[in-house]
């Protein structure tokens, strides 16, 4: 699909423009990016701390549960906070609380030893508050960036996740080897403080929207979003895609253990290939529909088609994993990143300003809830050595909803006409 405002060079200029012209967005993005790198390092540090405890291997499952199970409850609580208070203060408060939680581990270590349960408590606090920046940052973007630059802003957020996914664990491993796990936790605590400072330094207020929008819809009508066909259809498609992504998180270690040379190094290369693909996809995401202003149903409908097409390509990439694992992981990352960027820009137009906090929190929480189902589906298949069946299931789970988006776009078009 040809770019509306040029090719990759235009997209690059758009990303540079949004960083150059919006000091507030630049501050928030830099603070968030640094904090994400710290989080990537901390996951490795907490894992290492747990492994060093008696029975550490058996406790890894509990650590993973503490990281993931509180996310759903936290997501339900996050949205109302973002819509009721200035997002700058919510983001800053979240960063300070999580920074204090991370700092508790090195502080207790310095004063006599880390309680056995503390790493799990810290992981649970992280999981509970995880959705605050995940929903708060995109909810703030429409107030900081004009519509023509929202693709670029969303691409920059996606780039941050990709870079953090590559750099965070690698840096964490190096620092643990040189200085120990506690040094990583101190670093992450500092990044949280810096993110809080960046959020408070944003000059433009990010307050809650008025109780009613131009249409006069009452302010508690969160479930009015469920009447938007495009929001529902794209969220269901992404939830299905994330089931396949959850399967991939099990498939990677299994491949490294049973099929690929190098063991842990092979796993690192697979994860690096996935993150590199995500980075490339995020950088290129603005080259299609670059700078699009979603001012009408036609433009929004083209964007919906583009989302469905790249999801179909990502689905085909899951099948490639069975025959060429490194290439498959790279391609999954490459095609999944534009899905995220373009869908997020579309949601920014479809979700009323007064519901952005709750809307993004609800949708991202739903999408984050499905990967565990993928791990449950993949495990028995891989234990039986059925890699081809697992790859085919990943492709079907992610591809069929995308195909439904394409074939059902006429049914979805009336919702696009209502985009503000």
TrEMBL record:
| Signal sequence segment | none
Xref: PROSITE patterns: MFS
The subcellular location is: Cell membrane
Lipid bilayer topology: Multi-pass membrane protein
Lineage top rank: taxon:
Bacteria
Protein name, as recorded: Major facilitator superfamily (MFS) profile domain-containing protein
Query: Where would you find the membrane-spanning parts of this chain?
Result: 27-50, 62-82, 185-202, 230-255, 267-292, 304-323, 387-406
